[in-house]
Structures are given as C-alpha cells and as structure tokens.
Amino acid sequence: MDSSFFLSRRLVLRVAMSLAAVLPAAAVQADNYPSKPIQLVIPAPPGGGTDGMARLTANALASSVNWKVVPDNRPGAGGNIGFDLAFKAPPDGYTLALGESSNMVVNQYLYTHLPFDIKTDMLPIALIARVPLVLIVGANGPYLDLEALTAAGKKRSLSFASSGNGTLAHLVGELWKGKAGMDMVHIPYRGAAPAITDLIGGQVDLFFASVPVALPMIQAGKVRALAVTAPGRISVLQDVPTMAEAGYPEMEASVVFGLVGPGGIPKRLAQQINAEVNRALQRPESVQLLAAMGVERAPGSFGGDPESFGKVLQAERAKWAPVVKASGAKVD
C-alpha cells in the first residue's frame, strides 16, 4: 500500500486528537465549573450600591450552590479600571464583574477613550436587578409634593445633585428638566453620601437617588420622598407616587445591575452561570433582601438568559445616549 496513505492517516489521527483536546474543553469546563474560586470584580468602592449588590449575589450563590465567589473592589475612572481588568482576563468564567448602568451603558458616550470595546469585550451574562430612583428634597424645605417643586422650578432656577457626571441620577435630572420645562443647574458630587448631606443642609434643592441609598434617610425623616421612577409603587415606599402618577410617564428609570464577563466565554458556560444566578436570586431570602432595598424581584419576572440581558442593555443605550449628548457631559 502507498506509504502516503499511512502518512495521511497519521496526519488525520493527529489532527483529530488535537481537535479532541480542544473542542470538548468548553463542555468539560462547563461540566466541572467551578473547580476553583470565582473572582468577582466590583468596579466601585466598598459600601455603595454596586458593592452591596455584588456581595448579595456572591452570598446568594454560596448559599444556593456552594460556589465560592470572592468580591474584589477595583474602583476608579467611573468603573473603567475594574472592567478593564475583568474583560482582559481569560474567558473561562473565573473572572466576572458586577456592573451597573453607568459603566455598562453610559461610559461609552461619556468617556473620550475607553481601554476596551464595550460591545465586543464585554459579555452580558445575567440581569441581577433593576433599582428605581426616588426624587428627594430636604425634609425642612418648602416642597411637600412634586407639583409644588415643579411650580417653584418654573419661577426660579433649581439645583439638582447627582453622585457624579454621567450617573443615572444626573441623566434622570436632565431628562426631567426637559420634560418639565424647568431651569435646573446640575451639581455633581463624588458619591451619593455628600450629595444627600448637602440636600439635608439646604445647599441643593433635589436629588434623584437610588432607593437603597435614600431609604434610610427617608425613614429617619431627614429627607422627603416626592416620587419614584419605578413603573409602579414599591412596597418600601408605598405612600410615594410614581413619576407617571404625578404626570410624567416618560420618567420611568432604574439602575440596571448585571453580571458580565470577558467576551469569548463559551455560550454553554455563560448559560450555566446565568441559570445558577437566577436560581440563587429567586430564593426567598434573596427576594426578601432585595425587596428591603426597594427591588421587586418576583420569581419568573426577572433574570432571563444572557441574550435577553444583552437586549436590556441595548434598550438602555438607546434611551440614554441622546440624553448624554444633550447634557454635554464628557469625562476625559
């Protein structure tokens, strides 16, 4: 028999063995995942809303499937430093990140240069939660409801605080400014805590704060809640109307929190992580903790697969890109 036949056969066998070593890797990885701790990059400092949501998710996974998820705070540059670390990690599912609207959606329009391509380097994996905002004013101020605040804003310029340029608090304020036809001046702060401090002290007129951040101050009587940006009233602020009920149906908005990873994570593995995150966050104790933060997450109404989470982010980009452009906000 021609020796070339044996050479060809040996070549085919060698190629087949090489493919066998490579192709099942994703399947084997998904079957054995996780075989070591998972690094969860938090692109924000400790103590804030992103940090709290990340640690809640890590604890839920530990309780649900005994996964060891290690939170790793990497703040800076609006979340870009942490994301850059996560997206340049090997796409094996052992380095993930917990993002929110600002760094997953807004930064690509806010920053002139990003160290990564958000569309190709970030893989959406699981929607964690949507957290509504609440419009708050100082408890000792003259504004008892949204109507009174709007009337004042049409007579004089009001100041609205935010936790930084390009944050959802900033963009919602800009959006309402246009919808209500008011003259408002944006006052950015380095975080929500100093913004609320100045709100209480009367240095600024109003603040669209996330519900978990504002809730303790509302309950303590230090600030007054006028309206929430949720689609319906929320259990922890049942007496507070929605912006839609107050006449502004276009003002529905929530901070979107989600689990993301580097592009290139195998689809089967991404789906496995997604399924376990959804299952962990639908446990009664997780639902209870989220509800206490103002997050309504009834079983089956949240989550979805990675593709549906990607569509959520696309819709958020379509909604907020023109608002960022109109505001003129930029960070270099």
Tags for this model:
9 strands; alpha/beta; globular; disordered N terminus; 332 residues; 19% strand; 13 helices; nine-stranded mixed sheet
List the helices and strands and how they pair.
Layout: H1 3-22, H2 25-32, E1 38-42, H3 49-65, E2 69-73, H4 80-87, E3 95-100, H5 101-110, H6 118-121, E4 122-138, H7 146-153, E5 158-162, H8 168-180, E6 184-188, H9 192-201, E7 206-210, H10 211-219, E8 223-228, E9 254-262, H11 267-281, H12 284-292, H13 306-327
Parallel strand pairs: 1-2, 1-3, 5-6, 5-7
Antiparallel strand pairs: 3-9, 4-7, 4-8, 4-9
Helix pairs in contact: 3-11, 5-13
Shape field: globular
Tell me roughly what share of residues is in helical segments: 40-55%
Order of helices and strands: HHEHEHEHHEHEHEHEHEEHHH
Would you tell me the overall average pLDDT?
88
